[in-house]
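Sequence and fold
=================
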Amino acid sequence: MDLEVHSSNQLLLANYKLYSDMISQIQLENVVRLRQYRVKWEERLATWRDLHTRQTTDKFTAFMSTPAITDCPDIKSISEMMKCELNGLMERRFNKLQTVRELKPPSYTCKAVLRWYEEVCQLSLTLENTHRRYVAKLAAVGDKVLVDCEAVADRMLETLQEEGVCSDSEALDLKNSHLMPLIEGWGARHKEKIIRLEKEFSDEAAKFKANLHLLYDFQNSAANIWTEYCSRVTAKNNELSALIKKCRLKHDEINQQLESALDMEMDKMRQDTNDIELKKHLSKATEALDEIAAAYTNFKRDMADVIKNYPDMISSELLTYSVKIRNHLGCVIEEEETVEEEEKDGKEEGEKRKKYR
């Protein structure tokens, strides 16, 4: 009986052990299967998240490649307006530059050259201010485009967060690693365009300013040569006027004396009572008239002597001016032969004037 009980107990224990082993094996297999399901679910979840992340990244990349961003209508409009207005100002400045052709004697003075130079400088300043104003507008529009692009990126990331694709930290990492580089790249390219535009305009403005200053110095020097020539001619004219006035005053004094003597003789003739006295005073009056005629002849000769050297004097001054202006212009000619020819022409002109008088 005890043996049978002992055998039954052993059998019962063996069954319990086997049952527990079976339960343990089944539970272990369930845990392994659940673990596999969990791993597969996590893999699929990661794949789903990566897919949505890539879709968002591709969508934002496509958005950054749209004409609204790459060829922004606002930037294009401002660029066209800037080009149109700058071309108009440059045409005005070019036309003002062309007026330098009108600066020639006798209105060719240093003041006229300075006024022309100041007007061109004022147009250049207006051109620079206009360019600076439009560049500021381009920069402002570029900043606005960057803000709009970042707002679009934030909305896309908010959608991902609402769908449970990523957390806040993952969305921030995605923005910094994939989306912001696209925005910063566009901003860098836009800034580079503005910097290149400013540099090109600055170089062109500096070159124009240097050339304008050289042109002003050239024109001002030529105007100084003309002013110097006018001053010398004016001095010669004043000297000639003084000599003519002196000669005229001398003649007037002599003529006044002779006319007084003639008037006295005429008065005596009116008072004469016989033919002898009348003939006597008539003879003296005739002599007085002859003396007056001789005085006028002498006056004419003196005046001719005074002005006979004037053409040669003016020709000499003109020759000096011609030589100086040729040297200023840098004309390569044979100076001696040219001077001789001009002196010969001046003498022939003086002889013609003498014959004409």
Observations:
- The mean pLDDT is 82.
- The chain has eight helices and no strands.
- The radius of gyration is 55 Å.
